[in-house]
Amino acid sequence: MSPRKKTRESSYKAGYGIKDIDRSFLILLIALLVFGVVMIYNATGVYSQGAFGGAYRFALLQVGWLGIGLLGFYFFFKLDFDTLRRISLSLFGIALLSLVVLSLANLFSGCGSGGLIFAPCVNGAHRWLYVNPPPLPQIPLLGVLGFQPSEFAKLALVIYLGVLLDKFVRNKEKPFWVFIIVVGLTSVLVLMQPNMSTAALLFIIGLSMYFVSGASLAPLVALLPPLFLAGVGFILSSDYRRARLLTFLNPAESGDLSLGYHIRQIQIALGSGGLWGLGFGQSRQKFQYLPEVAADSIFAIIGEEFGFIGTAVFILIFSFFIYKGFMLAKDSTTLLGRLLATGITTWIAVQFFVNVAAMTRLIPLTGVPLPLVSYGGSSLVFSLMGLGLLANISARNS
Questions:
Q1: Average pLDDT over residues 46-70
Q2: Nearest to 264 by CA among 296, 289, 292
Q3: Does 6 map to a domain?
Q4: What is the pTM of this model?
Q5: Average pLDDT value for the chain
Q6: Can you give the residue range of the structural domain that contains 170?
Q7: What is the largest CA-CA distance in the chain?
Q8: Mean pLDDT of 367-377
Q9: How far apart are CA 321 and CA 66, in angstroms?
């Protein structure tokens, strides 16, 4: 990088603040975050009251994660690109190391005894790492603090791949093999958890950034058919994944009662909503009929309470938020800014449409949460960090 460019990128709009972020982008982000907390309280209040003696437990936990996420948002919002380049490899290395730990746990530990104390077995797989596992002291209000490395990997991949593609393109070098190694390694480690939906998401994020970099697409096009066949083979090689596919095709006759039940309860929720919905707070499926009611399935509660019209409005609002992200990428004054903004927006967009598609039976259930709205700390915190970087780019554009 030339001295002139380095000076321009590091000092450009050095005094920018929140007021410089695209106003509609910021308003939509705040609205989605508030809506998410309200819907989590709405969906979990009954269960929380019965199980914990207070209706606000899950909503307050989400507010706690939101506070941590907003700190991360501000950190990446104020981060200059020179510092981002310097820390990109470290972030990616930490992400890979945490994924390797989980991969080894899944290969050698198993779930017979509940897993390792720092890598618990949840739903038959190791996908979490605990920061303060027992017998270490718990964190006030939050208890045992854990995170999903696959969520951190999304942020780390966007940053590191963006920095590498920017460097290779500016030096007039071909970045294809760098793209394959970085994206392929990350996706394979996530696939070993096993987590096929997130592995596919990581590949799509990398693909969008590679496309925006302007590099030759010819070698990538040649690679897509064998990758597609490998994906099909991976799905069919597992009894569990085959069961999910068969349940999607015919939930009523599925041998997997839990998956078939989940799909039927989603259909009941969306069908009960009709055109205008049952009304806010009037969901019947939240009375412990619908699994993952505040997490992956929260879209079904939105459909039940707000109906087809309300759900359509929600989809339009979120789609406009995604559109603003891609417009910020288009308007970026630097290649690195365009790459980062594209990767972050693709990350949020694909997660959103995959969740909605799974809830409406366009694709099999994936376990992908609804970004910014679903209950869950890892997804919310790392999404807000990425969106802080997008806000950074927005302020630079202004």
A1: 90
A2: 289
A3: no
A4: 0.91
A5: 88
A6: 19-397
A7: 66
A8: 94
A9: 19
Q: Does 364 fall in a domain?
A: yes
Q: If you average pLDDT over residues 159-166, what whole number do you get?
A: 97
Q: Report how far apart, in Å, the C-alpha atoms of 300 and of each of 38, 231, 254 are.
A: 15, 28, 21
In a domain, 275, yes or no: yes
**pLDDT tens by residue, 215-243:** 888 888 888 888 888 888 887 777 777 77
Nearest to 202 by CA among 332, 336, 116, 92: 92
Can you tell me the distance from the alpha carbon of 79 to that of 82, in angstroms, rounded to the nearest whole number?
8
CA distance 103 to 191: 9
DSSP 225-282: HHHHHHHHHHHHT-HHHHHHHHHHH-GGG-S-HHHHHHHHHHHHHHHHHTTT-S-TT-
Of the CA atoms within 13 Å of residue 313, those in its CB half-sphere come to 9
Q: In sequence order, which residues have a C-beta less than 8 Å from that of residue 217 and are 6 or more positions away?
A: 211
Q: Residue 274 pLDDT > 50, yes or no?
A: yes
Q: Tens digits of per-residue pLDDT, 10-42?
A: 444 556 788 999 999 999 999 999 999 999 999
Give, in order, the Cα–Cα distances in Å from 189 to each of 87, 204, 343, 350: 22, 16, 19, 20
At 363, list the tokens.
Answer: 């694709």
* Number of domains into which the chain is organized: 1
Residue 113 pLDDT > 60: no
Q: Of 273, 264, 394, 398, which is closest to residue 341 (Cα–Cα)?
A: 394
Q: How far is CA 217 from CA 68, 174, 221, in A?
A: 39, 11, 6
pLDDT in tens, 175-211: 999 999 999 999 999 998 888 899 999 999 999 999 9
* E strand residue ranges, the chain: 121-122, 125-126, 129-130, 146-147
Q: Is 70 exposed, middle or buried (0-12, 13-18, 19+ CB in 10 A)?
A: middle
Residue with tokens 């490395």: 149
CB 158 within 8 A of CB 340: yes
Instruction: Identify whether 1 is part of a domain.
Output: no
The answer on pLDDT for 248 being more than 90 is no
Predicted confidence at residue 115, as pLDDT, reads 57
Residue with tokens 């879209």: 299
Quote the CA–CA distance of 367 and 377 in Å, as a whole number: 15
